[in-house]
Design a protein that fits this description.
One of its GO terms (molecular function) is methyltransferase activity. The protein contains eleven helices and seven strands. Helix 1 packs across helix 9, helix 2 crosses helix 3 and helix 6 crosses helix 7. It is of the alpha/beta class and 264 residues long.
């Protein structure tokens, strides 16, 4: 089975861009996942690979959950701490990765992950979570499906990534290939093999600054990954975006979704 290489500091240069430029998960999606999973106020939620804590903060703010936010990246945890303060909620911050899951975390009702599961040893992570998640609890993988973008800025970014960040581009292609087992297959082979998905479709109006910031929040095109090619990449990206969107406006239709995995 092919797994993504673990790189603890992979996202150290993206923290400043995450909260500002990533499309947030809709409150309605958080509420529906909480309802379907039977999460009560005070229920323990682990936001694993939390980044700047978007999911954990949302569950604390909207559902009154007791949240532990865990990430290997100190900059991400600092952003999560600031985000929680701004939201008026308290969360427990914990530096570590899926390799550090253990009984000291405590019993969980939910483990939620937002676009982080593919960086983990997925079978080992699910085995560890089986010892922590209480009966009736679940693993929830959050993600998004980009239905349409006008203009299609992702094609532009893919082409530029191949030129400016070829190694990260190859890693990304691997995760999209048939050699990469989908998350659903990993879950079906685990104790959490009762699957269902909840999705919310929304339209967003963005500008070129929004897209550039979001691109820098991605590991394959982060400032760290681009290194001394950063300025040339940004200039090329801005030029191509402006060429395809002279008014500087981009419309996106995105499905934000949560894949709930209960024990069978």
């Amino acid at each position: 089975m092919i797994t993504a290489p673990f790189e603890a500091r992979r996202f150290q240069s993206t923290a400043a861009y995450y909260l500002r430029y990533r499309i947030p998960y809709p409150d309605s999606l958080i509420a529906r996942v909480a309802e379907r999973s039977g999460l009560k106020a005070g229920g323990h939620v682990l936001d694993l690979g939390c980044g700047p804590g978007q999911l954990g903060i949302a569950f604390a703010r909207l559902q009154g959950a007791a949240v532990t936010a865990m990430d290997p990246e100190p900059e991400m945890l600092a952003a999560a701490e600031a985000g929680a303060k701004d939201a008026g909620v308290e969360i427990t911050l914990r530096q570590g990765s899926s390799y550090d899951l253990g009984p000291d975390i405590g019993r969980l009702h939910l483990c939620v992950m937002g676009r982080s599961f593919h960086w983990m040893d997925r079978p080992a992570t699910l085995t560890a979570l089986d010892t922590l998640i209480e009966p009736g609890g679940a693993v929830v993988l959050f993600g998004d499906r980009h239905i349409e973008a006008s203009p299609d800025w992702r094609t532009i970014v893919d082409k530029l990534t191949e030129t400016f960040s070829p190694e990260r581009h190859e890693q990304r292609l691997l995760r999209k290939s048939k050699a990469w087992a989908p998350h659903e297959a990993m879950l079906l082979a685990s104790p959490f093999n009762n699957l269902e998905r909840i999705g919310i479709v929304s339209e967003y109006q963005k500008d070129i600054e929004d897209i550039v910031g979001r691109v820098f929040s991605m590991s394959s095109t982060s400032p760290q990954a681009l290194g001394d090619k950063l300025a040339d990449f940004e200039a090329a990206l801005r030029a191509e975006l402006l060429d395809t969107a002279p008014d500087g406006k981009i419309t996106e239709i995105v499905e934000s979704n949560g894949l709930l995995a209960f024990r069978g």
